[in-house]
Amino acid sequence: MYVEDGGVGTVSDPEIATLIVSVRRLSGADRRHVSALVESLLRGAPGRDARPGSDSA
Questions:
Q1: Which of 33, 34, 30, 51 is nearest to 42 (CA)?
Q2: What pLDDT, on a 0 to 100 scale, did the predictor assign at position 34?
Q3: Confidence band (pLDDT; 50, 70, 90) for 12?
Q4: What is the pTM for the complete model shown?
């Protein structure tokens, strides 16, 4: 489980929950680097769509 400002969200996958908590601890510049890395990985993965909100994986 992770906590958002103003509410509580739950994630069933513990790896995703860990990523959310970890990314929130990074500086703004580091989050932008992580975002660019994730987008790059998604663009290179067959059958995946890098658009936000897309869940084709």
A1: 51
A2: 95
A3: confident
A4: 0.56
- Per-residue HEC secondary structure of 19-41 comes to HHHHHHCCCHHHHHHHHHHHHHH
CA distance 21 to 14: 11
Query: Which residues on adjacent β-strands are paired with residue 9?
Result: 2
Structure tokens, 10: 């739950």
CA atoms within 13 A on the CB side of 50: 12
Cβ-based neighbours of 50, under 8 Å, separated by 6 or more: 39, 42, 43
Contact 36, 51 (CB under 8 A): no
